[in-house]
Design goal:
Thrombin, subunit H, 16 strands, N_methyl_site, alpha+beta, six-stranded antiparallel beta barrel
Length: 260
């Protein structure tokens, strides 16, 4: 009868060493692969959210009320404020010489709504945010009759200037995009019109993007080239982002049409 032979201590130690080396190699490979996956997922998330924020900001800026852009910053936050257009068109008659409770416009594609603000010939940002300039009046109610709409105001009003093109704009509320030195981009809305721009506006923010990496003392995320008689306003967006040791910067210009 043949007796079975067991392992020697040297053989056992050798096997354990080989299994340890193999385990270290496999675990290192798994850790490296997991790290690559986590880093790439983080990069994709930041790129996706930043692209969405830039695209949404661009679309809203391009359809903003003329002269509604204003920009303010300090050492830790920069806020870009503007008023997105709800609808626009041409008016038939508006109270310019004598105060009145109503005016008439050609019915726009998007119907006017009570509570919206009606703008006529805004030229500077104060015309938008300072009600005493009489370029902005609140709509109380509307009545549509064929191709025309009668706009009733909340009180007897008088617009200060006529538009050479007899154009009006209607909007609901200003919108602000605020860039924080701590790394976030937030969007604010439904906070109303304020004569002096606040940092940030007094409303609930919506997070649009993270990992902002601009040095506010060297490069601000937003700059504005104001409109002139021959050029539209240009918004230069230059936000920088950093994730997983990699950084990237957007260089994007948005033309804001200024035809009051």
């Amino acid at each position: 009868m043949r007796r079975s032979r067991g392992f020697t201590l040297v053989e056992l130690v050798t096997v354990m060493m080989l299994l340890g080396i193999l385990a270290i190699g496999v675990s290192s490979f798994l850790i490296f692969g997991t790290r690559i996956f986590v880093d790439s997922s983080a990069v994709d998330r930041i790129i996706g959210s930043s692209r969405y924020a830039m695209e949404r900001m661009t679309r809203e800026l391009r359809s903003s009320v003329p002269a509604s852009l204003r920009l303010r910053d300090d050492t830790h936050v920069q806020c870009l404020e503007f008023v997105p257009i709800e609808t626009s068109g041409r008016y038939l008659d508006m109270p310019f010489d004598t105060p009145a409770l109503s005016g008439r416009v050609f019915s726009p594609t998007t119907a006017l709504q009570p509570g919206w603000q009606l703008f006529v010939y805004p030229l500077v940002s104060d015309d938008i945010y300072n009600a005493s300039h009489n370029k902005r009046q609140q709509i109380a109610s509307v009545s549509v009759s064929g191709d025309t709409t009668r706009v009733n105001f909340v009180a007897s009003v008088r617009f200060s200037e006529t538009s050479p093109a007899e154009r009006f704009y209607a909007a609901s509320s200003p919108v602000s995009y605020c860039f924080f030195a701590s790394g976030q981009i937030y969007r604010y809305q439904d906070y109303g019109y304020t004569q002096n721009q606040t940092l940030p506006p007094a409303s609930t923010p919506v997070l649009m993007a993270e990992n902002l990496n601009n040095d506010f003392s060297q490069q601000l995320p937003v700059t504005i080239a104001p409109a002139s008689l021959t050029n539209n306003a240009i918004v230069q967006l230059s936000p920088s982002f950093e994730v997983a040791g990699e950084s990237f910067t957007y260089q994007h210009q948005v033309q804001v049409f200024n035809v009051p």
